[in-house]
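Quality-control log, excerpt.
Job 1 of 2 completed; input and output follow.
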Amino acid sequence: MTANCRSSFRAIAAIVRNVRSVTTVTTVTTITTVTIFTVAALLLSACNAIIAESDRPVGAAARAAPLLSIHNPLVFPVGDTPASAGGPFYGWPAVEVESHGLRIFHPHRWLFASSLDELLALRPQLGDNEMADAFLAERQGYLDLLTPAGQERLFAGTGFPFDPDGQPVGTNGFHLLAVPSEGRTLETYAQHLADQLEASGFASLTGGEIGPGLRPWGERTATIRYSIDAAQAYGARAVTVPDAVVDGWMVVLLSPDNGTFLTVAFDSWGDSSEWWELLHLEIVRRVQWAADPAYQPRSGPTVTLNFNMNVRAGPSTDHPIVGKASVEQRFPVVSSNADGDWWQIEYNGQLGWLHRAYVTPSADTDTAPQADESGWLTANDDERGLALSYPPGWRYFDPARPTGADLALFAAANKLGNGDVDVPGLAQAVSEMSYRRDDAVIGLGLQPGPPESEASNFMLVFSFPANGVSLESYVEEAAGHAFSLSPATVELLQGLRPGNEEAVSIRYVENETNSEVWQVWLLSPDNETLLALTFSVHSDEFEALEPVLREIVQRLTWIGR
């Protein structure tokens, strides 16, 4: 630690020693908040440029392959989509932090300020009494500490709960700092923060890891957990709470252009309840980088009509007409038939077909999958070493990188009415469908129902590191967690896969949606990956569709395993 930082910590230690002699409410709250945020502020701002980093990586524990919820509906009841369902995690207000290109979502009945001026502008909402004055002074002192002279640009915001019917509360909030990465890796920067926390003398490290799981689609984050003696940090305020501690949690994100570390730091008074933990997780999950290309749908291959023509339900004129298309209209290409003379397109939220002779294809149509003689299509996932085949009339895609056609088909399958869904909306929907396991979702399959149907059938494909888990041990664990309202069947079977390959089968009826859910768990030949195919099908359709679902399971192949 450099001399500058040593003197800073000595000064803070003096404040701690003197805090018990302070008697006024305003002064106590201001000074004690300065103390509690020493770890979160000084370590992340004033000392950043002058403390040498360690090259030691922060250890990251391997994440276990969790059970998918036995209650997982996968399909939303009609009219109950993330945009309209209500509840504490829906419809959170968003704040644009233009200075850092961020979009921050915060819980209901919270306030957020991205600068001192914005914080002072909140004064009318805090009430007109001494406690409100003390609270504002407390937060103002906190922002002053976060933004020492010359480094104001690092501060990106602070959020905290506010009940207009009660007194302001200074704990259980969060704050944001945006620090230039300067070529550092997430591992190196996380170790840098951990070393500073350890050297501060105020914090006790309780855990830390680097990996996916907190952010959508497997984005890696660094997390650091620590605790502070509340009596030391809060002085007189801790007297009424014997043995209380302040729990701290830092989560570090790296911007898509690798240029900025965003630290989201939480502090919680006393034992962190499950409720606060859920709120903190949601705040981290919903942070958006405004310029992130992940929030824009990918372009895909298209065809442009040379003539007015009919759109067919299948690849021949024997199939019924589903609509009309006009010259110069352009449509996204989904696939081609086995003979290559018809293009399957997305047409008003459904799949349709156009004859190849009457359209002009874009240069990238060779990237569209081509059906085999039976009409089945295959999606190759070289990164995860598997190839998944699916039947005619289905659409399978990576929900982390959807095209405009994928979004339109998903909106129609979910009966969203206006047919409008954006990339963040799809991410939120899949996150709900997978019970926040969207970092493990590698594919989404849709069997869109007819326009008059209430909903559609779905397939989610998950991939987890096996971490030594066998199918035998997994089926035992799953059997102990089969608590669906209707009886669940959990079995270790042979016969679903080629040869004698085993699979775990979990089946139950999801009462709220009247859908039958079937999870099939496979273990890769190298024992490194657990793969789950999870189908959700209307109960009255499951019997007729089951042979197709079994064929999907049968056709899946491992590549290079």
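Job 2 of 2 completed; input and output follow.
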Amino acid sequence: MFQTKSEERDYAFIPNADAPVVNRYGQSIETVPEGHELRGKSLNVNGDKSVGSNPNRYKQHGFYFNADNCIACHACETACAEKNDTPPHLSFRSVGYVEGGSWPDYTRLNISMACNHCDDPVCLKGCPTRAYTKFAEYGAVLQDPDICFGCGYCTWVCPYNAPQLDPVKGRVEKCNMCVDRLEVGLKPACAAACLGGALDFGIIETTPENRHQTLTQIPGFPTPEITHPNIRFQQTRTLPRELTRTDSRAIRYERDEAGDSPYKTKLRDTGAAKGWGLKDLSSREDPLVIFTLITQGVVGAMLALILGPLLSPSLAEGYAQAGTVTQAVLLFALLGLQTFALALSTMHLGKPHRFYRAFNNLKYSPVSREIAGIAVFFNLLGAYTLLASFPMLTAWLPESVANGLVAASGWGAALSGPVALWFMHKIYRIKARPFWNHWQVLTHFYGNALTLGALTVALVFGGVLFAQDAPLAGFLSALAWPVALGIAMEGVGLWFHARDNQKIGEAAASHHEQVTHFAYSYVARNVGLGIALAGALALALSAPQDGAALGAWFVLGAIVLTAAFIGRALFYVLVVPTSMPGGFFWRNPAFQKHARETGLAHLPQTGVVMDGH
């Protein structure tokens, strides 16, 4: 157990205060009822099997932050770092700030934030490996870094920057509420170290001495409706109507009217010049750019192969004319591409050798469901490829059974592919990332599947038919329609996405970055889609013959692929999360980028490391 010092001061101990039965969200403050099987168990802190003596062990605890008193001394950060022995580039608790007004009446509001051990922890639900547990003891949300495989999805879904992805160790770690201190009645190290009496701790919905407010939100703090966090605030000082962040996020906070109206997250126009932003299109998520595009293309190609002959006699005739060898080559190519994509997504993990843990949270995690869906599709694709390409494998079976296995595996792949893409799109429907939380993600993914899949089949079979001097017009014309439909789906989604983004703070900041720093890349992608749509419709309606047709398809393919890569790269780099504000040197994306470009990241004291996993 944690060893209490003989001279420990009274302020370091958790007060034994009376608490209501439920919190303001209707959640019971008693984590488990009397007599429950979870009571009386040891937390095994540092291997100690004894049970803590805290009388309120089974009540939800939380932090209390008095913003009026915080002087940004960072004592809480230091105490946390010392207690958890964190490296300089990780900070389970950090102090950021927002500021506003005009000289000489300039106001700064400091905010100290760590994990809020929420009633509805989205990190727990999102984690595919089940590394997170919400404990009956104190309601603490704890994470086991030894189970984590470093996908970082919890860092996407948390609105408060609580989980920290360590690119050096390739895993996530976070605040553990100092449960070893709680077991002996002590407050967490950060709260005990606070010099200004700003940070406190106790049973949630109880108010510390000499405090009277228990707000759930202050300027800079994302909406509590996402997770119902266990933190309460006091903020009584008069603040300007508008507050801005000092980090590089294009965000400000504005009160609707003078008085006590809540602050709303708004766009802060940075005045950035328009540019291409090509160097910044690359990100840590580059493997996901390739993985998602390949997967969608392979799914679309399977749909074209299986459904195409049923929808178009021209496709059935073209497939038959090109022969089974062409289909076998294409199927093995698709299987190889999907294998490469899966390997790439696995290597994107901080701990690739732990990939098998991805299926551990099928009940809640969209990541687990996506991986399971793609695994089903991949195995059915493999089965269909082998059975359709090598009839001798089923020659010993009755013909009807053999044909049934081929058909079942083919239809299984064709039907499971779109289901896998549905699960893939759900990964990005994250409330903490408003730019992604839009139905356009679905039209984007399904649209790419139709376009890339039909394009792949057209180029492969079209090339073979051209070499055989077979007619191409009807075959390619039939495949041009799904290409056009996919582009149209994506275009409609993008139009609504751009319109709706301008109404939401963080999404508006993403859109602002899209039309300034990445403006020319954004326009080039949109123009490319427009040209590709016109070209696909022209090919569908005019049905050019022979070499001209195939040449036009190669040009169309180049335009579509370029637009797809630009669009998917923008998808990942533009997102602005609902994060806590940082400072000028810490938790500031602009400073982190500067440190990596100039080599400052090689100095540990900067708190930035070079990009890795």
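Post-run check on job 2. Residues 10-240 form a domain with the Alpha-Beta Plaits fold (CATH 3.30.70.20).
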